[in-house]
Design brief:
Strand content of chain A: under 5%
Structural class of chain A: mainly alpha
Helix content of chain B: 25-40%
Number of helices of chain B: 9
CATH topology of chain A: MetI-like fold
Low-confidence stretches of chain A: none
Number of domains of chain A: 1
Radius of gyration of chain A: 22 Å
Oligomer: heterodimer
Bound molecules: adenosine-5'-triphosphate, magnesium ion
Distance between the termini of chain B: 34 Å
CATH superfamily of the largest domain in chain B: P-loop containing nucleotide triphosphate hydrolases
Distance between the termini of chain A: 26 Å
Mean pLDDT of chain A: 86
Helix content of chain A: over 70%
Number of strands of chain B: 20
CATH topology of the largest domain in chain B: Rossmann fold
Strand content of chain B: 35-45%
Number of helices of chain A: 12
Order of helices and strands of chain A: HHHHHHHHHHHH
């Protein structure tokens, strides 16, 4: 390791993390502020969380966000797993490299452009914009991440395992269900949680493809913030951060539980 | 009894390369066959064809008299032990062994008994609950063997099963594998590129070269009567003298050594040769007899040379003798014989071929 003194390394670490997390921490602290004024500390209180509970617009948005994240996570996990399998198993064919890097395009492409192109597609298809167009957009973005994770996992597995299963009397379907799928499961779960989190977080795609009556929490927060930051918004944001943190931790835990080496 | 497996003129191509080239081979019920050949000669490809992974481009494979062309791997009465062992990492040792039994629809009770029996067979009792990553290389190799044998296949295919083990463990395991094979009476086909392993284990060896079978026979036949230069060189140490055929009649050939115009050697040769044809005289190192020169010219049938190197290898002693022609002959002597001769570098010696020790090769 490097020969730098310990306090230097510790200092760099603390500074880096402070840079990342101090604003978030500030937001969480102010969500427990008793005062109505955002920048003045008026003592500890959970009143904004109660107010949040009664704020129907925010609660509706939260419900839309959660349901969209769940639905798009499931769809992304399914489609991404299929894509990952195909990429890992198809062997070599002409244009394989192009194909496998194409899966990264939605990850790299600017979200604005993805949002715009999805909107154009929905308009062309004459799809009524609303909850399902949001789910569809998020599933599209999420499946790329799932595909990349699942493919990496499958490629790290011994390719002989499925053949060994077949050699022992398992047909292709049984070999897949009993060997490939269980071994890929941690990657699928991790991919699902990532897609779920991305959907909860997303603002840009949702603003492009949502319609009247389907506003996600980030969209609602953004529109309210333009009228001024309220402690209620702080509370809503803190809850969202909590959700995301929990789902990421669940992903790490799932990976650990299923660890097979 | 008809052979268990009949491979009839099978060819398998990858693009322009014939990885298996017009191979015909039979495997008898209960026999231990080694498929021996250098890396890349098509051993794995041939074995996978028998197991059902990949289809032959031409030719037929029959198992128990039945054409296997349309039989998928999961319905063939053969099992395979993979070189990487391919144990299922998410299952215990027991579940790994039971996997094939469950697919065959065996009852829980029978399955438990069979798993216990297999664990005993490979001396792995008490390891049933472990996961594959908790096993050493030798242990996982045993589990892979138990798993492949659990379904009582008629033929077990083993692809270099011992390659991952260190030398000592490999030698022990060779004898254990042989014992297991004898106990069960299952036919084994062992793929290896290690001639020592093939000789130690197999009842019959098929030597493969560039997709084709070069020779089949007992380890003794392969060693003592190699059919070609390739087999002679691949199996064991060998001295190959370039020679020209003088005469051939009734299965006996005479050949004159290159660079020693008066040295004519006569030996049995399986395939006919024409006079004047170029050939090679193959002599195993242990058939080279060395005597000290007493100042007199060499006796007929002996060639004079100088010891250029000696090596003591425990039970045997190797001496390299440089002949007048420049050719260096390797001679293997037993320990006591070497002690009596007391050879050292620079000694002048006569080398000759012991009785029955040379072979004139057809190709
Ligand atoms: N799937 C494949 N596609 C193309 N060529 C292949 C394929 N599998 C094998 N080959 C080629 O066929 C030849 C025989 O391969 P094979 O694996 O049977 O050799 P082997 O005798 O088992 O060698 P080793 O001792 O190194 O395992 C090699 O030249 C190899 O490159
Ligand atoms: Mg091989």
């Amino acid at each position: 390791m490097s020969g730098r003194p310990l306090y230097f390394r510790a200092g760099a670490l603390i500074f880096g993390f402070a840079f990342l997390y101090a604003p978030i921490l500030l937001l969480v602290i102010y969500s427990f502020n008793a005062s109505r004024l955002v920048s003045v500390w008026g003592g500890f209180s959970t009143r904004w969380y109660q107010a949040l509970w009664q704020n129907e617009a925010l609660m509706d948005a939260a419900s839309v966000s959660l349901r969209a994240a769940l639905a798009s996570g499931v769809i992304a996990a399914f489609l991404g797993t299929c894509a990952g399998l195909a990429l890992a198993r198809f062997g070599r064919f002409r244009g394989r490299a192009v194909f496998s890097s194409m899966i990264f395009a939605p990850i790299i492409a600017p979200e604005v452009i993805m949002g715009l192109s999805l909107l154009l597609a929905f308009v062309a298809l004459d799809a009524p914009r609303g909850f399902w167009t949001i789910v569809c957009a998020h599933a599209t973005a999420g499946m790329c991440f799932v595909a990349v994770i699942v493919r990496a996992k499958l490629e790290s597995l011994d390719g002989c395992l499925e053949e060994a299963a077949m050699d022992l009397g398992a047909g292709p379907a049984a070999a897949f269900a009993r060997i490939t799928l269980p071994l890929a499961a941690p990657a699928v779960i991790a991919g699902f949680l990532l897609a779920f989190t991305l959907s909860l977080d997303d603002f840009v795609l949702a603003s492009f493809v949502s319609g009247p009556g389907s506003t996600t929490l980030p969209m609602r927060i953004y529109s309210q913030v333009r009228l001024g930051v309220t402690p209620e918004i702080n509370a809503a944001s803190s809850l969202m951060i909590g959700f995301v943190a929990v789902s990421l931790a669940a992903g790490a835990l799932a990976a650990r539980l299923f660890r097979t080496r | 009894m008809p052979p268990l497996v009949e491979i009839q003129e099978v060819t398998r191509r990858f693009g322009a390369l014939a990885a298996v080239d017009n191979v015909s081979l039979e495997i008898a019920e209960g026999e231990f066959l080694a498929l021996l050949g250098p890396s890349g000669c098509g051993k794995t490809t041939l074995m996978r064809l028998i197991a059902g992974f990949g289809a032959a481009d031409s030719g037929r494979i029959l198992i128990g008299g039945r054409d296997m062309a349309d039989v998928p791997p999961y319905e063939r009465p053969v099992n395979m032990m993979f070189q990487s062992h391919a144990l299922f990492p998410h299952m215990s040792v027991e579940s790994n062994i039971a996997f094939g039994l469950a697919r065959a629809g065996m009852s829980k009770g029978d399955m438990g008994r069979r798993v216990a029996e297999m664990l005993r067979l490979v001396q792995m009792e008490g390891f049933g609950a472990r996961r594959p990553h908790q096993l050493s290389g030798g242990q996982s190799q045993r589990v892979a063997l138990a798993r492949a044998l659990a379904r009582r296949p008629r033929l077990l295919l083993l692809d270099e099963p011992l390659a991952a083990l260190d030398r000592k463990l490999r030698e022990e395991t060779q004898f254990e594998l042989k014992a297991v094979q004898r106990e069960l009476g299952t036919a084994f086909m062992l793929v290896t590129h290690d001639q020592g392993e093939a000789m130690a284990m197999a009842g019959r060896i098929a030597v493969m070269r560039a997709g084709a079978i070069a020779q089949t026979g007992s380890p003794r036949e392969i060693y003592e009567s190699p059919a070609s230069r390739f087999v002679a060189e691949f199996v064991g140490g060998i001295n190959l003298f370039e020679a020209v055929v003088v005469s051939f009649a009734g299965g006996i050939a005479s050949a004159r050594l290159d660079g020693a115009s008066d040295f004519v050697f006569t030996a049995r040769c399986s395939s006919p040769l024409a006079a004047g044809q170029k050939t090679a005289l193959a002599v195993r190192p242990e058939s080279i007899v060395i005597t000290r020169t007493g100042g007199a010219p060499p006796a007929p049938g002996a060639l004079r040379g100088e010891v250029v190197d000696t090596a003591f290898l425990g039970g045997i002693f190797h001496a390299r003798v440089k002949l007048a022609s420049g050719f260096v002959v390797l001679s293997a002597l037993s320990g006591p014989a070497a002690a009596e001769l007391g050879l050292t570098r620079g000694d002048s010696v006569d080398a000759s071929i012991g009785p029955g020790g040379g072979r004139i090769l057809a190709s």
